[in-house]
Amino acid sequence: MFRALADPTRRALLDALFERDGQTLVALTAPHDMTRIAVAKHLRLLEDAGLVVSRRRGREKLHYLNTVPIRLIHDRWVSKYTEPWAAGLAGLKSELEHPMEKVFEIYIRTTAERLWEAITDPTIRAKYHFGARIESDWTPGSRYTLNHPGADGPLAEGENLVVESPRRLVQSMHTLWSEDAEREGTSRVTWEIEPVGDSCRLTVIHDQLSDTAPPELYGGWPMILSGLKTWLETGQTLTTPGSLMYGEP
Questions:
Q1: 0.70 exceeded by the pTM?
Q2: 68-244 topology per CATH
């Protein structure tokens, strides 16, 4: 990853996605005095490093900044020194395409079945999701709630739109933990699990967000997924201040 970040052109491409996520190759090439082929090679290196995720939408190929690897570096080396300052960076962009879509990708050494269990089991979920438990019977069309023992009511609720164990889970999500979050209304979260050798690639897509959605709705995903990876691979929980901030009392 550090090799990918060493090149100024690749850093400029990441900056461009930081400012406006979900861009095409044409849009990313426009500010640079180079061919599309050259920019495509830089994007491929960033994808190989896990810093960029691309997804097809019709005939277009859109590129997204993936903050999870950066969060993992933060959790390992940065947090014990500069957590209060660095946590603000996780809020990410404010002026994005309509509607807003966030894509996060991470590789975890585990099986698809164990990963699915970690996503749907309330006790395991609480170990990496800021102490919050998720409750549902996990049938298509069923309701779920995200609950924390220190809260008066659910932090979030929604419907399980698609349940395909252990590969794909699509949920509507209405956040209730603050007035700003509740005012945003309903968004959608998709969990996609793909086995790769002795590991799984987990892609989380948080979309159907308005262009004015507050960062508190999506800024926590890098820490949540870092905690999920840590738990499944080591059996330990993250101990960064941000991870413990809303942990179980």
A1: no
A2: Alpha-D-Glucose-1,6-Bisphosphate; Chain A, domain 4 (3.30.530)
